[in-house]
Design a protein that fits this description.
The protein is α/β, with parallel strands linked by helices. Helix content is 42%, strand content 16%. The protein contains twelve helices and twelve strands. The protein has a six-stranded parallel β-sheet. Strands 3-5-1-12 form a four-stranded antiparallel β-sheet, covered by helices on one side. Strand 9, helix 11 and strand 10 form a beta-alpha-beta unit. Helix 3 crosses helix 5, helix 6 packs across helix 7 and helix 8 crosses helix 9. The longest helix is centred in the middle third of the chain and has 34 residues.
Length: 338
């Protein structure tokens, strides 16, 4: 049977691009988001996953079946195949996690779409994969696998749409997520950002150093906070400091911060501050953050802004709609004719 035809862009991305409006200031060089989007098909981000990621997946299955499974008793061990249908437009992501659920349950998965492919459901639902195995095992893994795939694909779709805007504006910097991830689900959401073409930002509290207002207030000053962080961070970890004003940005840069996050500033104010900071500290990385949405993020693009971070890429994102259905004779006949 032939595979479903791929599309070059998802309708949601087109809608969001239109909302973003015209071009912002152009920056120099190639965007890392551009490179990710352009070369993503050549990358296997599964190789990034830590040794324990499968154990986390097994834990999700245990969480969903803490005791007996009466529905599984009803269907028994009959060999079945089930079709995974994509029912909304977006970027497919989370394939290794979906696979791991069913591998754990003794089932196999044959993919008809590949990770990073765009699902175009404008003409109706699309068969993305076929799961084969004992009926009760397929249904044991159904909801856990679908939940994971729907959320990962939602993050990747939002990331792809955001990265596409950066590309369209010729901006040189990174579109990034934040540490606003779902407890216990961080690895999937960070993974999905990469699949979509965005940057992960720091992965956790142990990755890089970020000194925010609470750190500064408790330490007494930005300079004191940076000095103490340097004692432990040494030369191996970058230090980022949140700055609410240009003056705080200069204090952070002067104290030796590698990255200054300009937080909750109006776009023009932030871009002017970034230009002044870069003029005095050319190697400083400047991040724009705080209340930035898909519709407004292009307003922050500038040759002097290197990162635009958005917490809503992994918090409050839309999910893609998938379903997994045991194949009936009519479904198999329709697939054979496709």
């Amino acid at each position: 049977p032939s595979r479903t035809t791929r599309t070059s862009a998802m309708s949601a991305s087109k809608r969001q691009k239109t909302a973003a409006g015209g071009a912002a200031e152009e920056g120099g060089g190639a965007s890392s988001s551009t490179l990710n989007a352009a070369t993503g098909k050549e990358q296997d981000f599964t190789h990034l996953l830590p040794p324990h990621w499968r154990e986390e997946v097994h834990g999700w299955v245990r969480d969903d079946v803490p005791s007996i499974d009466i529905g599984g008793f009803v269907v028994g061990e009959k060999d079945e195949e089930a079709y995974l249908y994509g029912k909304s437009d977006g970027v497919l992501a989370g394939v290794p996690f979906f696979d791991a659920v069913f591998d754990h349950l003794g089932c196999t998965v044959e993919w008809r779409k590949q990770e990073r492919d765009v699902i175009d459901a404008s003409g109706g639902k699309v068969i993305c994969a076929i799961v084969r195995g004992p009926a009760r095992n397929i249904l044991l893994g159904e909801r856990t696998a679908l939940n994971t795939l729907a959320r990962a694909s939602g993050v990747a779709s939002a990331a792809r749409a955001a990265a596409d805007v950066g590309i369209a504006h010729g901006w040189h910097g990174h579109i990034a997520g934040t540490r606003k991830t779902t407890p216990g689900f961080r690895i999937v959401e960070k993974y999905a950002l990469l699949v979509g073409g965005a940057a992960t930002h720091r992965l956790d509290l142990s990755h890089m150093v970020m000194l925010k207002d609470n750190h500064v207030w408790s330490a007494g000053s930005i300079s004191a906070a940076v000095a103490k962080a340097k004692v432990a961070a040494g030369f191996t970890s970058k230090i980022e400091v949140e700055a609410r004003t240009l003056e705080e940005g200069f204090e952070a840069a002067g104290a030796g911060a590698d990255i200054v996050m300009l937080d909750n500033m109006a776009p023009e104010t932030l871009k002017a501050a970034a230009a002044e900071l870069k003029a005095a500290h050319p190697h400083l990385i400047v991040e724009a953050s705080g209340g930035i949405t898909f519709e407004t993020m292009h307003e922050y693009f500038s040759p002097h802004v290197d990162v635009v971070s958005r917490g809503n890429l992994t918090q409050g994102y839309d999910v893609l709609d998938f379903s997994l259905k045991i194949a009936r004779a009519s479904d198999k006949a329709a697939l054979a004719k496709a």
